[in-house]
Design goal:
The protein is an alpha/beta fold and about 250 residues long. It has helices at about 5-15, 35-40, 60-70, 80-90, 105-115, 130-145, 160-170, 180-185, 195-205, and strands at about 55, 75-80, 95-100, 120-125, 150-155, 205-220, 225-240. The chain starts with a helix and ends in a 10-residue tail after the last strand.
Length: about 250
C-alpha cells in the first residue's frame, strides 16, 4: 500500500514553495526546543545506542542534522523529493544521508531495513498528517525499521491541538503566515485520537515503553508575540518491553 498521488503532490508542492532558511516553515523550530528536548526523553530507553538513526519525515532536515551531531549514522527520510532537496542544500558537509521513502509502502521500509539493519527511529508530527488509511501501514513500516533491537520515539499532536489549529485558521485576520501554506496545499493535520497511536503501535507488534505530554513548539507567534505551542503526546516503543528508568 502506497500513499495517494494527491497526498504526495501536496507535499511536493508545499516544499517546492517553502523558503530555504531555517525557521520559515511552521514546525521548523530550533532543535534546542524540539529534537533536543525529545532526545533527553528518548535516550534512556535506547537498548543499542550505536544503531543507525532514521529521522522519518525529515522535511528540510533541521532535526536530522542535530541528530547527526550525536549519532554515528543518521538517515533523513521523507516522501517528498522537494523536501530532500532542502535538506541536502542545508547540509553541504553531508552530516547525514537523505533518501526518499514512502513509509506506507511495506517493501520500501523492508529495503531500508535490509540496508541499515535495526534502527532507532525519530518521528515528529508525521502520523497525524497522514491519510487515515495510511496510518497503520506507516506504523507497520516503523516497526520494520526498528526490528528487534531498535526503539522508536514518536511525538504527535494530541486531540486538544485540533481546536487550537482550527481557531488559528479561522481567525478574522486569516491563519498565521506560516500556517496558511499548510492549509492551502491540503495537508492540514487530521484528527488522530489520543488512544489511537498506542493502538497502532501495539497492532504493529511494538510495546509502548514510556509516554507523556509536552507542547509541540512551532516557529509562529500570535499577534501579541507569544510563541504558538500545540498540545502533543510522546511515546517510546520497541519490540520487547524493558524496565523503565527510575522516575518514569
Amino acid at each position: 500500500m502506497s500513499v495517494t498521488h494527491r497526498y504526495r503532490e501536496a507535499w511536493e508542492g508545499f516544499w517546492r514553495e517553502a523558503p530555504d532558511e531555517q525557521g520559515a516553515v511552521f514546525w521548523d523550530a530550533d532543535p534546542a526546543l524540539t529534537a533536543g528536548v525529545h532526545l533527553a526523553l528518548f535516550e534512556p530507553y535506547l537498548s543499542a545506542h550505536d544503531l543507525p538513526v532514521v529521522d522519518l519525515g525529515c522535511g528540510n532536515g533541521t532535526q536530522t542534522r542535530f541528530l547527526a551531531d550525536r549519532f554515528r549514522h543518521v538517515v533523513g527520510a521523507d516522501l517528498a523529493d522537494a523536501a530532500l532537496e532542502h535538506a541536502r542544500l542545508a547540509d553541504p558537509a553531508g552530516q547525514a544521508t537523505y533518501r526518499r521513502l514512502d513509509a506506507a509502502e511495506k517493501t520500501e521500509a523492508q529495503t531500508l531495513h535490509a540496508e541499515l539493519g535495526d534502527a532507532n527511529v525519530y518521528v515528529r508530527g508525521v502520523l497525524h498528517q497522514c491519510e487515515p488509511d495510511d496510518r497503520q501501514p506507516l506504523v507497520d513500516a516503523l516497526a520494520t525499521l526498528v526490528g528487534e533491537r531498535g526503539r522508536a520515539f514518536l511525538v504527535e499532536l494530541s486531540e486538544a491541538a485540533r481546536p487550537v489549529l482550527m481557531g488559528l485558521a479561522r481567525s478574522s485576520d486569516g491563519p498565521p503566515p506560516k500556517l496558511a501554506p499548510i492549509f492551502r496545499h491540503g495537508i492540514a493535520p487530521g484528527a488522530v485520537s489520543d488512544d489511537a497511536v498506542p493502538d497502532y503501535l501495539r497492532a504493529a507488534g511494538l510495546t509502548v515503553l514510556a509516554s507523556g505530554e509536552l507542547p509541540l513548539v512551532t516557529t509562529e507567534f500570535t499577534p501579541d508575540g507569544a510563541r504558538i505551542e500545540l498540545p502533543s503526546k510522546w511515546l517510546v516503543a520497541g519490540r520487547t518491553g524493558t524496565a523503565s528508568p527510575a522516575g518514569r
